TrEMBL record:
Organism per entry: Amycolatopsis camponoti
Name of the featured protein: Pentapeptide repeat family protein
Cited Pfam families: Pentapeptide, Pentapeptide_4
Organism domain of life: Bacteria
Residues of the signal peptide: none
InterPro entries in UniProt: 5peptide_repeat, Pentapeptide-BTB/POZ_domain
Recorded coiled-coil stretches: none
Length: 201
């Protein structure tokens, strides 16, 4: 997501920096380190972050519009009450993050790693989660309507009571995940039965 005239920063050290409440527009960061930084309330628009590290960073209440965070590392980051709209999180990894109240709208999380993520009852409708790693993720009661989960790894993922109407899941996902009480449309119900070896006449 390159924007003409964007400011480019490469390999900059922002560890433990206090950057809360700032407004960034059309800035580009490559290989920058934001470990432990206070980014609470940060607002980005049209920014690009490639291979950046956000370990233990505080991104609570931050707002991101049409920004890209590609192949970034979010380990033990605080993402509580953050808002992401039309953003790309392609190939980024999230380990032991705080997701409470996060809102993701029209975002691309293809190839993202969300293994063991606690995403209970979150609004995740319409997301692109193709080939994402959701192994052992807790998606109990999550709203995944219309999301694309094609190729996603869902071994031991909890989708109990999740809303999967209009979501795209392949046969492997329908076998791997715990779908007890999930709400699905007729098409997915038929695919689920077929994936479990039932013969529908």
């Amino acid at each position: 997501m390159w924007h003409p005239g964007a400011v480019l920063e490469t390999g900059e050290d922002y560890r433990e920096a206090v950057l809360s409440g700032q407004w960034w527009e059309k800035r580009r960061f490559t290989g920058c380190d934001f470990t432990g930084a206070d980014l609470s309330g940060l607002r980005t628009r049209g920014c690009t972050f490639d291979d950046c590290v956000f370990g233990r960073a505080d991104l609570s209440r931050s707002r991101h519009d049409a920004s890209a965070f590609r192949s970034c590392t979010f380990d033990r980051s605080v993402l509580v009450e953050s808002r992401w709209t039309s953003c790309s999180l392609l190939g980024s990894s999230f380990a032991e993050c705080g997701f409470g109240g996060i809102a993701l709208t029209e975002c691309d999380l293809s190839l993202a790693s969300l293994a063991k993520a606690r995403l209970r009852k979150l609004g995740l409708s319409g997301l692109r989660l193709r080939e994402a790693n959701l192994t052992e993720a807790d998606l109990t009661g999550a709203d995944l309507r219309g999301s694309d989960l094609t190729g996603a790894r869902l071994q031991a993922a909890k989708l109990d009571g999740a809303d999967l109407r209009g979501a795209r899941l392949d046969a492997n996902a329908l076998v791997q995940a715990n779908l007890r009480g999930a709400e699905v449309d007729v098409e997915t119900a038929i695919a689920f039965a077929a994936a479990h070896g039932l013969v529908i006449r």
